[in-house]
Design a protein that fits this description.
The chain is mostly helical. Helices cover about 55% and strands about 0% of the residues. The protein contains seven helices and no strands. Helix 1 runs antiparallel to helix 2 and helix 4 packs across helix 7. The radius of gyration is 15 Å and the shape is elongated. The chain starts with 6 loop residues before the first helix and ends with a helix.
Length: about 140
């Protein structure tokens, strides 16, 4: 049934359940269903939908790695200009709260790590969470 929902409607649904603040098997199943839709059609999620949906998952303590990667994949070098600061902030907060960190953390240390030891741009873009933080 969730397949008939628009991305914004899925976002609103997840947000509502996160704001309710109680967890049940049914709410967990609903969030899993929203996550499955995000993974299946992440290109339909606008920046606000991505930020708020991931915020909702983190707030509700729904931490599915593949779902967060799908959302993070939208905040990349190609789409960064379409994200407003609040949308970026919500996305990065959700990733950090969920405990997901960049696979290539050395990419961000330009002071102590020589350029020859930092990951290449193709390494950075190969991991959606690293690219999300880098963007």
């Amino acid at each position: 049934r969730l397949g008939r929902f628009k991305a914004q409607e899925l976002n609103n649904l997840a947000w509502g359940y996160a704001r309710l603040g109680h967890r049940t098997e049914r709410s967990e199943a609903l969030l899993r269903g929203v996550g499955d839709e995000l993974k299946r059609r992440c290109w339909q999620f606008k920046p606000q939908d991505v930020g708020t949906t991931l915020w909702s998952f983190a707030t509700a303590e729904y931490f599915d790695y593949d779902t967060f990667c799908a959302g993070a994949s939208r905040l990349n070098f190609q789409h960064i200009r379409s994200f407003k600061p609040q949308e970026m902030s919500n996305t990065l907060w959700a990733l950090a709260t969920a405990g997901f960190s960049p696979a290539h953390i050395r990419a961000f240390d330009t002071t102590l790590v020589p350029a020859s030891q930092r990951p290449s741009m193709s390494d950075v873009t190969s991991d959606p969470i690293t690219e999300c933080f880098a963007a």
